[in-house]
């Protein structure tokens, strides 16, 4: 499978492994090797262990971790941060809260998508939670990369990949796209008119710039 290009790492990158669809083990190992700290959100701890990765911290209500896996985590002296099952934050948000408190400068999230659309959408909203705190964050899978843009971003080594742009805020103004099959100049997008789906990156260096609002960007190797 073709790998998605991933931006150069920032210092102090925290990797959060959530409890959605099981991540590609090779991707998990690769991102774990580049992370300063690995935080597993409940079931994410099992994904880590299955991939041969020992998380630094496990956070959540621990209701999705087998007892033998909990024993392994204890044996490895992994820090367990338990929360009551009756809580108003998802395990992934608890993990992100912890990353923010521990001064993460960048966050990557694995296993953050899956057949629970509500959780997948909630995790996209968590990208905004991080952005509002000055922390670049993105969701990664073997076939997708999802992040937010509130200013300007340059995409390198992504030629030939499918990209979709959707507004996270009610309206996004002053959109400029260069290096794409369908380019834009001083355009706008608003919720309810998803015309930014399935564009194509046709340059080795593509640029997205907006003047106001926030865009959700999804890069995919899928047509």
Annotated CATH homologous superfamily of the largest domain:
Thiamin pyrophosphokinase, catalytic domain
Number of E strands: 14
- Share of helix, binned: 10-25%
Give the CATH topology of the largest domain: Rossmann fold
Q: What is the CATH-assigned architecture of the largest domain?
A: 3-Layer(aba) Sandwich
Quick take:
The chain has 223 residues and is α/β, with parallel strands linked by helices. The chain contains five helices and 14 strands. It starts with 12 loop residues before the first strand and ends with a strand.
Architecture overview:
The protein has 223 residues and is an alpha/beta fold. It is 23% helix and 32% strand. It has helices at residues 25-33, 44-50, 67-75, 91-101, 117-131; strands at residues 13-17, 37-41, 57-60, 79-82, 106-110, 137-140, 144-149, 152-156, 162-167, 171-178, 184-190, 199-200, 205-209, 215-220. The longest helix has 15 residues, at 117-131. The chain is elongated. The model has no long low-confidence stretch (mean pLDDT 92).
Structural descriptors:
four-stranded antiparallel sheet; 223 residues; ten-stranded mixed sheet; Rossmann fold; 2 domains; 23% helix; alpha/beta; 5 helices; Jelly Rolls
Secondary structure layout plus pairing:
Blueprint: E1 13-17, H1 25-33, E2 37-41, H2 44-50, E3 57-60, H3 67-75, E4 79-82, H4 91-101, E5 106-110, H5 117-131, E6 137-140, E7 144-149, E8 152-156, E9 162-167, E10 171-178, E11 184-190, E12 199-200, E13 205-209, E14 215-220
């Amino acid at each position: 499978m073709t790998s998605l290009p991933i931006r150069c790492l920032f210092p102090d990158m925290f990797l959060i492994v959530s409890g959605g669809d099981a991540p590609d083990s090779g991707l998990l190992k690769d991102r774990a090797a580049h992370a300063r700290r690995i935080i597993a959100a409940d079931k994410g701890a099992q994904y880590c262990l299955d991939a041969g990765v020992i998380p630094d911290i496990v956070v959540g209500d621990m209701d999705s971790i087998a007892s033998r896996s909990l024993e392994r985590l204890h044996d490895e002296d992994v820090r367990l941060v338990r929360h009551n099952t009756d809580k108003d934050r998802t395990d992934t948000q608890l993990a992100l809260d912890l990353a923010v408190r521990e001064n993460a400068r960048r966050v990557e999230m694995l296993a953050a998508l899956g057949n629970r659309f509500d959780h997948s959408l909630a995790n996209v909203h968590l990208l905004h939670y991080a952005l509002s705190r000055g922390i670049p964050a993105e969701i990664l899978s073997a076939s997708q990369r999802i992040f937010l843009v509130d200013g300007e971003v340059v995409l390198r080594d992504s030629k030939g990949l499918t990209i979709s742009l959707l507004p996270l805020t009610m309206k996004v103004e002053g959109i400029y796209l260069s290096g794409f099959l369908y380019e834009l100049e001083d355009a706008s997008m608003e919720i309810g008119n998803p015309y930014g789906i399935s564009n194509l990156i046709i340059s080795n260096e593509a640029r997205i710039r907006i003047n106001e609002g926030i865009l959700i960007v999804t890069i995919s190797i899928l047509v």
